[in-house]
């Protein structure tokens, strides 16, 4: 049996000073790190960035059928 897996186009950009990168597996890296900052764990992002990223993910996904690995 084949399993449907989404693969996304790698992309990155900037939105209101916040950098983002979308990986092939659909994971998103969000960063607002400044050169003078040493550490950061939490950032606040605008809802407009969430909607922008959702549209990009939806537009760049492709379906790949992968054979199920039987154990």
List the helices and strands and how they pair.
Layout: E1 2-8, E2 11-15, E3 18-22, E4 28-31, H1 47-60, E5 61-67
Antiparallel strand pairs: 1-5, 2-3, 3-4
Large-scale geometry: elongated
Q: What is the gyration radius calculated from CA atoms?
A: 16 Å
Give unreliable regions as ranges.
Answer: none
- Biggest sheet features: 3 strands, antiparallel
Mean pLDDT: 83
Secondary-structure-based class equals: alpha+beta
Describe this structure in words.
Helices cover 20% and strands 39% of the residues. By secondary structure, the chain is an alpha+beta fold. The chain has one helix at residues 47-60, and strands spanning 2-8, 11-15, 18-22, 28-31, 61-67. It has a 3-stranded antiparallel beta sheet with strand order 2-3-4, covered by helices on one side. Strands 1-5 form a two-stranded antiparallel ribbon. The longest helix has 14 residues, at 47-60.
């Amino acid at each position: 049996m084949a399993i449907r897996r989404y693969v996304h186009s790698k992309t990155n950009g900037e939105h209101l000073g916040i950098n983002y990168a979308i990986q092939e597996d659909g994971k998103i890296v969000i960063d607002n790190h400044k050169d003078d900052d040493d550490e950061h764990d939490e950032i606040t992002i605008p809802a407009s960035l969430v909607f922008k990223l959702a549209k990009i993910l939806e537009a760049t996904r492709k379906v790949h059928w992968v054979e199920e690995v039987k154990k």
